[in-house]
Amino acid sequence: MTGHVHIVGGGLAGLSAAVELAGSGVRITVYEAGPACGGRARSYEDRHLGCRIDNGNHLLLSANDAVFRYLGLIGAERSLTGPGRPIFPFVDLGDRSRWTLDLSRGRLPFWLLSKRRRVPGMRLSEIRGLTRLTRAGPEETVADCLLPGMLASRLLAPFAVSALNTPCDTGSAALLGAVVRESLAKGGRACIPCFPEVGLSESFVDPALAHLSILKAEVETGCRVAAVEVADGRVTGLRLPDRLVAVGPDDTVILAVPAPVAAGLLAGKVPGFTAPDAFESILNVHFRMPVPPSALGALGQARFIGVVGGISEWVFVKGDVLSVTVSAANRYADRDPDTLAATIWDEVRTALDPALASPLPVAMPPMRVVREKRATFAATPAQERLRPGCETALGNLLLAGDWTATGLPATIEGAMRSGATAIRVLRARGRSARATG
């Protein structure tokens, strides 16, 4: 494999592709439009809060093979933390009930037989809803598959909204079924939760950039690709604000930008190209505490809690920052951010106080609302049909990103899987060229 590989986009898909290829002897350049790499999975200094926060919260699972391969390549596999076992504390704000989902480590779901380890109030017959999800057809929604009961309302529906970032009545059951097959269906060993010990950048971005620097890959930030030049069925140039980068006959371009950016760059230039065009937002609220709260019990072990029956969905305890995630947040687009944050703070107090050594203050502490308006594509059956594969009609253009056809919703695992797929395709083409040369 020869030539220059141009990777447009320094998010996790682009970084994954660069890390997979680095050290192969091929020249690599990553072009990132923003001032820093990482995309939706990065950390930054927040002046209002006076501390470093993540722009979002991401709960990973031990089944995320692409994530752990990436972390291993960049030497950051020990930067994640978690309870070390498949436990998930929950609270229902409706009746204030609390429980900890405690999964069996093996494939046999013995946890279902224990009322102490499963969702309270669920009936074993509700498990048929899980089976229906794993067998769902491409046009079915999550709501089509769920059965009425506590398993759906207290676990499967909240899980679906978090995994798909899409409401159950429109979310793709097939995509959720893929997540279930790769996690819960494999048993608790595949469902051990983990997240960055320090921050997203410290786990996924900074070690990758250091790794790429050592291996002589080039990373240019603040470098927006404004246009893609195409002629004779291939990309011939990348137009930057200050120059045109020629793409030679042996060069390859991997476009690893968000779907709307890709659609804008490739409109009318790539026959048959489609991309998702409907999106869902994610809302995160970060509360800076005067002192780090002391969590007890399952909350102290997990350092997060799932919330049912409110606006909040997950609350993470990150030192002196309490960070709340709200998925499928288009439904709250018209709500005043300050009023929304105040409501969420009341939910946080209700959810956390019984599990803390000392109660949280009644008055809302300094906070930051972070709303990503187009965080992911809407994971509906219609949008799933628009997701393109890695290869395109242009001979030297490959696609990567969590919005491409990864078989998963828009997740970190999907993003990294797409980057690795692009490099596998590139290498396969190189082997084929040598075989016929």
UniProtKB/TrEMBL annotation:
Domain Amine oxidase: 12-422
MF annotations from Gene Ontology: oxidoreductase activity
Gene3D superfamilies linked: 3.90.660.10, FAD/NAD(P)-binding domain
Pfam families recorded: Amino_oxidase
Protein name per its UniProtKB record: NAD(P)-binding protein
